[in-house]
Design brief:
By secondary structure, this protein is mainly beta. It has one helix at 62-68, and strands spanning 3-10, 15-16, 21-25, 31-36, 42-46, 54-60, 78-84, 91-99, 102-105. The protein has one domain: Immunoglobulin-like (Sandwich), CATH 2.60.40.
Length: 109
Amino acid sequence: MSHLTTHVLDTTNGRPAAGVAVTLRGPAGDVVATGTTDDDGRVGELGPDTLAPGDWTLSFATGAYWRALGTAAFHPRVDVVVTIPEQPAEHYHVPLLVNPFAYSTYRGS
């Protein structure tokens, strides 16, 4: 069994990014799950209990987040594509660090 979680951090304000809508698309491009970051910037498990091998896309509605704060931003959405291997691990955590004009991501634990 494998699963995916995410966490969004607002590096401009030094806090979790609450209220960011997140969409997970499977390898075929279909929407598999949606969620919204909580007060700690986290979305618990997204999608099925077992992730099929292939490229999965996490879409973060960062533009709406910045607009709600009254901040102009360059990226209306951040798409992070991750590859799940043929024999997936048990857990995939994908943190996203955002500011109005840049973002970065990595495989977390």
